[in-house]
Please model this.
Amino acid sequence: MWLLTLAFIGFVAAGGLLTGWQISERAEGEMVSAGAQPSSDGVRHVQVLGTTISIHEKPPADWSPALSRRDPTVFTAGTGKTPYFYTQAPTATSVQLRAETNYHDLSRSRTVKVEVTGLSPNTQYFYRVGDSNEFHRFRTMPEGGRFVPFQFTVIGDTQSAYDTEGFVNLTKDRFEMGPFAAENDAANADFNDVTEAMRRRTRPDLIMHVGDIIEDARYSVQWSREQFLHLKYLLTLAPVYPVMGNHEYHDPRFHRFYELPIPVEQRVTDPERAYYSFDWGPVHFICLDINAHWYTIYDIDQVPTTTTVSRDFDGQDHRYPIEQVVGDFTVTGEALELLKGHIRDDQIASLRALQGPKMDRQALQAKLRDLNFEAAEDRKIRTATIEAAHRNMDTGRVELLIEGGDLRSRQAAWMRADLEANRDKPFIFVFTHHPVFMNGKARPPFTPILEEFAVSAVFSGHAHVYHHEHRNAVHYFVTGGGGDVSWSRGEPAVTKRADGDEGPFVMHRFGQQYMIVDVEADRAVIVGVDLDNEVFEETVIVPRGQ
Model:
């Protein structure tokens, strides 16, 4: 029996969502199940959001592994208003089709999940949304621990060029999406260059993203513009398994848009968790979150003062310990300098009487009332005097440091236990954002553990380059060239290990690139590929213990 399970997260459509199917009334956000039988040609049809998703067991007649046809729309599928769906969470017998109801304006969007079950293991399927030109492919996992050859790609740092204008990172929502009609025309779309190259050459079974997916994950407009527009064809090429990068800032939308393979009970006790592992057949994958800290943006009137769920300026809930974001206020000389031009000089002079001691919000506001400051002036003074990394007095926004706490030690203990439980795996691939070994420098406590267990390879990003080192049987790759801008700094484009050099360094390369890994029973072939889809390095590794 082929089953379709649909989850609508915070979304209720007018009328019936599953036209012609008998479904019971359920509360918003609960699971709804219905049966579906294939038609005579083997095609299954899923009715959702007023359109049909057709799932084919065989490739369409006009489909080929070459560059498939592109839909003339970007955020929607075909001529209708239905959003495009991308795959997540494949298993041997199921896959999740996921969408946002409004990619163009995520502040008005809801998440839709369609769980398609009853599939065959290690089988490729093709799906089409509505009358879209595009057929997207996915492959189910092999059953149990059975090995079958497969391919995955690795990409990192796909965010757009850095924006350093204005108040550093506090005003990036000043970028607005253009009119929907114009933005939704594929002819106007600025698709990510490396994703375009990947789409022309590869048909991976899964994609590993080593972090910094977008420039700043704390803004809905950046998710719209960079992930759901620039990276549309990364999302629809194969299921993406992401690593938390520093530009993700532990934003809750990271978990909203990606179905990480984390046990449900652990999600409940640790909603911020972004490290996990999974198997593809007998091959083991580990994704780590080694960000030591991150910054969350608050409106100065929204900075928490009591222990509760923390809600940032954009309305996103955070569940790390609230004590980390309760701000102290101190009137300093620096704060008085920041206030110039925002309040009168005589008012700044009156604040000098408050210099020195730390105060909580209530105490500071009582003193400001005694000095006859009005509410708007109070707001600017609190913005200037809170302990923050950056602040904007005009908007009243502050960027507060969130410490990772025991994340590293807790994660290292988890990783050791995970590796211990998977000693028999022929290949173990590890993914991090910050490099754990680069230029001869190791990152404790992770590097020693990875080498102790002789993992097959580690893939990282953060540095917008390609870099390869080999030490103690472990290959370390940095593949941070997935964006449209990469570092060069006037140095040689390519540097390779000198003859006779016995050190760990293998290769360093500037420029945009991604990686392809073909896993066979007796070897894994790892290649670095440039924007022209030319291979510039090939590394062959054998199963662990051989």
About this structure: The first strand starts at residue 3 and ends at 9. The first helix runs from residue 180 to 183. Confidence is low (pLDDT under 50) at residues 8-35.
